[in-house]
Amino acid sequence: MNERVLRVLEFTKIKEQLKSHAATALGKDEAVKLYPSHHLNEVIWKQKETDEAATVLRLHGGIPLGGIHDIRSNIGRAVIGGVLSTTECLDVANTIYGGRQAKDFIEKLEENLPILQELTNQITPLRSLETAIKSCIDDHGHVMDGASVKLRGIRSSIRTFESRVRDRLDNYIKTKSSLLSDAIITIRNDRYVLPVKQEHRGAVGGIVHDQSASGQTLFMEPKAVVDLNNQLQEAFIKEKQEVERILHELTGKIAVEEPALIENVRVLAAIDFIFARAKLGRTMKASMPKMNNKGYISMKQARHPLIPVEEVVANDVEIGKDFTTIVITGPNTGGKTVTLKLIGLCTLMAQSGLQIPALDGCEMAVFEHVYADIGDEQSIEQNLSTFSSHMTNIVDIMKHVDHQTLVLFDELGAGTDPQEGAALAMAILDEVIDRGARVIATTHYPELKAYGYNREHVVNASVEFDVQTLKPTYRLLLGVPGRSNAFDISSRLGLDHSIIQRAKGLIGVDSKNVENMIASLEAAQLQAEQEYEEAHRVLIDSESLHEALQKEMTALEQKKESLYRKAEEKAEKALTKAREEAEMIVSEIRNMKQQSVLKEHEWIEAKKMLEEAQPNLTSKQKESLGSKPIQTDKLSPGDDIKLLSVNQNGTVLEQVGENEYMVQVGIMKVKVKRKDLQLMKQPKQDLSKPLTTIKGSGYHVGIELDLRGERFEDAVMRLEKYIDDALLANYEKVHIIHGKGTGALRKGVQEFAKKHPRIANYRPGSEGEGGSGVTVLELK
C-alpha cells in the first residue's frame, strides 16, 4: 500500500475518526499508526479482536480506561537516574490503577473473550508501587505530611513560624495602622510583609522588598519579624530537600519496575486501540467481514463510510467469483467514483482490522497491493495534462500488477481522443485481467459498453439515473451498462422535438443497436425486480400462513390444557367422595369402640374399607393433581401429621420401612406411605411491633454522611433526611462524603445545597477533611 492510494481513497479521514474514539493518548497514537496488513492470518486476528470488543460494547457498554497516561517517557527518565515530579509519579500510580481496573473488568465477564482475556492476563497489578506513591502524594499532586516523619516535623515547624510571624504583624497592624496604606499582610519574595506608606518608611524600619506601581506604597518587612522570616525560609528549604528525597526514593521504585510498567503500557495501548475500532464500527453500524485470500468480495447493502448515514445510498457489491472485472459505464453523474472509492476504502478498512459498513455475512479479500487512479491529476508544476498525469500513474501501476492486486481505474482513457482513449482503455483492461488482478473501472466511452459481452470474467455495470428528476439515484446496477440520457434529458428540458429527431438520425447504426440492447437490459432488470417483489409477496403470504398455523397449534394446546383441568376437577370430586366415605368409616369405628363391641375381624374389615376408599385415578390424572406435592421430608416419632387420604390429623408413632410409617389417627393405628403424610408445622408468630419514636435535639446523629456508591436519587433522599436530623441536633456544620469518581454525585450535593433554605453555605473539604471528595455544609 503506497501513501498516495491511502490519500486518494481518504483512508486518513477514517484514521481521524478512529482517533476520536480512543480513550487514552496511548490509543490515539496507535490509531495514527494504523496501516493495512496484507497477511491473511494477521487480518483475521485483528478482526477477531475488534469483534470481541464489539461484543463487550453491546452487552456492557464499554471498558473502564480512565486515569491511564502515556508514562513511557517518565519511566525512561527514572531508569537513567532522573527524579520525577509529583505529577509524573501520580501519573504512574493512576496508570497502574487503570490497568488493574481493566484487568478486573475483563476477568469478571462471563462471555468467552480469549483474545482480550489473554491480553489482560499480561497486566501486572503492581499494588505495592501504587500504594507507595499514593501514600506520599495526594490526588492534587502535593506531597502529604505523612510521606515521612521528618517531613511531618518540618511542616509542623513551618506552621509554627508562620503563626508567630502573623501574630507579630497583626499586632503591628493594630497598633500602627495609620502608617499603613492597607491593613493587610501580604507576601513578597516568599517573606511576609506589610504595605507601608512611602512617607512613613523611616518610622516602620526594616527591609523593603517591593513597591506599588505608583510608588506610594512600599512592601516592607519590619525588623521585628526578620529573624522569624529567616527561620521560616530555612524551614522551607528543609521541606524542599525532604520532598526531593521522597521523590528520589519513589523514582527509584518506579525504575525497578520498568519492565512490568512498559508491558502494562503496551497492553493498555492495545486494549484501547481495539475498543476504539469497535466504537467506530458501532458508529458506522458496521459488521465483521469474513476474510479470504482468493480475491473474493461480497458486500450486502454496503455504504460509503464517509458519507452521512441520512444521505448515503446502500449498494450490493460482488466481484471475484463469477467475474473478476467490473466496468461501470454511463455519464459523469458522480455515482461511479463514489462506488469506486467505496470498494477501495472498505478493502483498506477490512485489512486494517476495522469492521465495514455493510450487513452481516459480508466477505472481503486480503490483497497484496491496492492501486487507484482516481480524480483530476493534472500537474501544473510538471507541465502534465490530465491525460499525461493519469497515464503516468497507470504506467507505474502496470509495473506491479499481479493476481494479488486490486486495481481501481476512474475514467480510464479519458483526456484524449475518444476513439484512441477507448481502444487504450480496453487494451489496459485486457492486460490487467490477464495478470489475474481484480479490477473495477469507470468510463463514459460508449465503446466499452459492449466490452463485458466480449470478454470472459468481465461484467458491465452502471449507476442508475432518474430522467424524471434529472438526478442520479447512486444505485449500482450490476449487469446493465450505462445508457446515454442526452436525448431524454434534452427533451425534458424543452429542446424542440424535431432537433432531437434529427440528432437521432445522425448517430450510427451500431450506437443505436447498443442503446436498444441497453434499453432491453433495463427492461429485463425491471422485470426481474418485479418478479422479486412477487416472490417477496409470496414469502409474506407463507409467513402469514405459518403464523395462522402457529395460532391453531396454540389453540389446540389450550384445549388440551382445558381437558386436563376438567380431568383434575373430576379427580378432585372423586377424592372428596373418598374422603367422605373414609370419615363415615372412622365415625362408625368410634361408635363401635364406645359400645365396646369392636371385633378383630370387624377391625380388619374396617381397615380394608379405609384403604379401598382411596380413589383409583389414572396416571394422567395423578400427574395433573399439582395440589398434592410428593412428601420427601423425614419424619420422627411424635411429629404432628395430616393423613391426606382421609384429611385427618394424627401423630407419627414409628418408621416401619424406608418410606412407610405407623401413625395414629384418632383411635386407629395405620401403616401408610410417606407420600400420603403431610408434616404439620406451627407457623412462626411475628412478635415484632411497629414502634413510633420522636427525635428531638438530644437525638444522636453523626456529623458525617457517607454517600459513596449510592445512586443519585437514593443519595438525595438520604441527604434530605440527614439534613433534617442534623438541624434537630443543632449542628452548625456537617460533612457530606461523596468521593471523587466522575463528579456527578459531588455536583448533585452542591446543587442540593444551593436550593436548601436551611443551608447557609457550602465548600469543598480542605486537605485534612478529605479534599474534593467531601463537601462541607454550614447550617443556619
Overview in brief:
This protein has about 775 residues and is an alpha/beta fold.
What keyword list fits this structure?
780 residues; alpha/beta; MutS, DNA mismatch repair protein, Chain A, domain 3; Rossmann fold; 5 domains; 6-stranded mixed β-sheet; 5-stranded antiparallel β-sheet
Q: In CATH, what is the homologous superfamily of the largest domain?
A: P-loop containing nucleotide triphosphate hydrolases
| Unreliable segments of 5+ consecutive residues | 377-383, 617-630, 683-698
pLDDT averaged over residues: 82
Q: Helical residue percent?
A: 40-55%
The CATH architecture of the largest domain comes to 3-Layer(aba) Sandwich
Q: Major β-sheet, in short? A: 6 strands, mixed
The CATH C-level name of the largest domain is: Alpha Beta
End-to-end Cα distance, whole Å, is: 72 Å
Number of domains: 5
What features would you describe in this structure?
The structure is a single chain. About 5% of the residues have low confidence. The protein has 780 residues and is of the alpha/beta class. The strands form six sheets. The protein has a six-stranded mixed beta sheet with strand order 10-11-12-8-13-14, sandwiched between helices. It contains 23 helices and 23 strands.
Task: Furnish the topology, listing elements before pairings.
Blueprint: H1 3-8, H2 11-20, H3 25-32, H4 40-60, H5 72-79, H6 86-108, H7 114-121, H8 127-134, H9 149-175, E1 186-188, E2 191-197, H10 201-204, E3 207-211, E4 217-221, H11 226-256, H12 258-284, E5 290-292, E6 297-302, E7 315-319, E8 325-329, H13 335-351, E9 363-365, E10 369-373, H14 386-398, E11 405-409, H15 418-434, E12 438-443, H16 451-454, E13 458-466, E14 471-478, H17 486-492, H18 497-506, H19 509-594, H20 600-612, H21 619-624, E15 640-643, E16 648-655, E17 660-665, E18 668-673, E19 677-679, E20 704-706, H22 712-728, E21 733-737, H23 744-755, E22 759-764, E23 774-779
Parallel strand pairs: 5-9, 8-12, 8-13, 10-11, 11-12, 20-21
Antiparallel strand pairs: 1-2, 2-4, 3-4, 6-7, 13-14, 15-16, 15-19, 16-17, 17-18, 21-23, 22-23
